[in-house]
């Protein structure tokens, strides 16, 4: 089956899988976004406990997806993994540390004998929510803006900045997407709270906070997209293998891949519709529309970054060192074996969906807190 596919077809197949995982990860960032809103939405101990337990039931999905995303990237495109993690390691270390303190916080916040107090771990959750979402957006933006590395003929990497990835924070275009992802995660967190918590006072605060987060997200995201459509992009000449700068490259990618364009436009509509019904229709189903739109938007951006003869990891130091999916991928044999393993993905997705529905079958309320029947984080 898969062994009959060409190497290029397998590379494209695995870039699609990476794009799916990236979209799922950003959707699941509602956990991180919700963590930054605990004190804005919850005004007393019981309310904050309700919010944290709503997120605590889902944080492992985000963590697992992050690990799967990283593992799949490493196995399918190892040259990207070695270049980015080997060069921009401070940016990745800060991001990974933020996720480590998240896991610790959920496990120890309400544990008996906690000498640091619940608030210490709540601050850790805020740090994870802020740093995790913002840095992820900055790193993804570098797929379009480029990084300071070069590769030798033997693919030995040299990183040309002493800040080892933190220099990405000096690029305004990167910051724009980082801020957009931060506010998107907060918007998704609010919509998730609305869907999973039963409390009138919390619901009023959620709808108020939606204005403060959905509007900045739209402003920064549209700024990033408009900027992206009119900037030069790193294009590949398929005949010579040469990387060159092309005007409006990413806009052309959307136009030349109409299916991706349709998916992106559908993403925008879904995101707006989910926010609209939450604000004006008093619906609690906004998370499914805005979440689906967020997934499709990220999925589309990954395809724009990697398909249509585009360098998905550009070098601003040596243009010819820029990585394409053809240059960075594993061998035909490795991708073939991995592709058979990927057939398990639908079963995993079905399990996640079943587990999600079982956990969220009943909304969290103050009555549940007082009953003591459930595990509390």
Automatic annotation (TrEMBL):
It is a multi-pass membrane protein. It comes from the Bacteria. GO terms for biological process: aerobic electron transport chain. One of its GO terms (molecular function) is oxidoreductase activity, acting on diphenols and related substances as donors, oxygen as acceptor. The keyword Calcium does not apply. The keyword Cell membrane applies. It is found in: Cell membrane. Signal peptide: none annotated. This is Cytochrome bd-I ubiquinol oxidase subunit 2 apoprotein. It comes from Marinilabilia salmonicolor.
């Amino acid at each position: 089956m898969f062994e009959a596919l060409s190497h290029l077809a397998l590379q494209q197949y695995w870039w699609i899988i990476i794009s799916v995982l990236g979209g799922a990860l950003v959707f699941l960032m509602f956990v991180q976004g919700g963590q930054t809103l605990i004190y804005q939405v919850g005004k007393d101990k019981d309310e904050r406990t309700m919010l944290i337990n709503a997120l605590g039931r889902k944080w492992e999905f985000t963590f697992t997806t992050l690990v799967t995303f990283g593992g799949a990237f490493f196995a399918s495109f190892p040259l990207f993994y070695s270049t980015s993690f080997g060069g921009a390691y401070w940016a990745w270390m800060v991001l990974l540390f933020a996720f480590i303190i998240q896991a610790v916080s959920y496990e120890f916040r309400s544990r008996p004998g906690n000498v640091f107090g619940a608030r210490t771990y709540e601050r850790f959750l805020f740090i994870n929510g802020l740093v995790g979402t913002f840095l992820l957006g900055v790193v993804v933006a570098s797929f379009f803006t480029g990084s300071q590395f070069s590769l030798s003929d033997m693919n030995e990497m040299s990183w040309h900045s002493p800040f080892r990835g933190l220099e990405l924070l000096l690029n305004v275009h990167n910051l724009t997407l980082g801020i957009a992802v931060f506010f998107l995660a907060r918007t998704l967190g609010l919509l998730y709270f609305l869907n999973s918590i039963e409390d009138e006072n919390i619901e009023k605060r959620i709808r108020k906070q939606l204005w403060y987060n959905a509007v900045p997200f739209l402003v920064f995201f549209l700024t990033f997209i408009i900027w992206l459509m009119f900037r030069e992009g790193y294009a590949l000449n398929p005949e010579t293998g040469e990387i060159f700068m092309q005007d409006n490259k990413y806009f052309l990618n959307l136009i030349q891949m109409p299916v991706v364009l349709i998916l992106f436009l559908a993403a925008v509509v879904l995101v707006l519709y989910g926010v609209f019904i939450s604000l004006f229709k008093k619906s609690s189903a906004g998370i499914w529309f805005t979440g689906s739109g967020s997934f499709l938007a990220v999925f589309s951006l990954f395809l724009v970054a990697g398909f249509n003869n585009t360098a998905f990891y550009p070098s601003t130091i040596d243009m010819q060192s820029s990585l394409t999916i053809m240059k960075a991928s594993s061998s035909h044999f490795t991708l073939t074996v991995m592709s058979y393993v990927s057939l398990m993905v639908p079963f995993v997705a079905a399990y996640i969906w079943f587990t999600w529905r079982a956990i969220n079958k009943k909304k969290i309320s103050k009555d549940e807190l007082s009953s003591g029947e459930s595990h509390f984080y």
